[in-house]
Amino acid sequence: MKRVDLADDEVMMAVWGGTLKRADSRIAGLRERFPRECSCSGWGNDIEGAAAEIAFCKYYKLYWTVGLRTFHKADAGGIWAIRSTSMEKPKLKFYHVKNGNKKPDNPDHNYVLITGKMPTFYIHGFIQGHEIIKRFADHPEWEISYDNVALYVPKSELQELK
Asked: Over the stretch 140-149, which tens digit does the pLDDT of each residue have?
């Protein structure tokens, strides 16, 4: 697990970027995927999510962009999709079927689990989308969301990032 601490200007960039992402989603008519699971407002989720993306990019020396109108594109480096949570027992969430107006996740991306809250984040590991789909059949213990659109991949199934 890798620790990343954001500097004050990076925190401010996350606030700016997350707010723009939330506004962009609202303008596009998108809704929360899992409103019952959100521990903070959608605005807060987007700000913390942007901060996790910035933390990943900082650690791996990638350029971060706010990515407006980039729904279902990678968050970093063209192949990395960042999944962040502050939950006590974190799992990586992968959306495997369409949910309302939201498409399923791109199986060609690498999904990264990051935990924490601004300014400190922890990079736990990753798994490729196709691998999630392939392994799910062999792992009935993996949780499924209440509406069957997301799979929860345990940390133990993730590969370490170099």
From this structure: 788 887 777 8
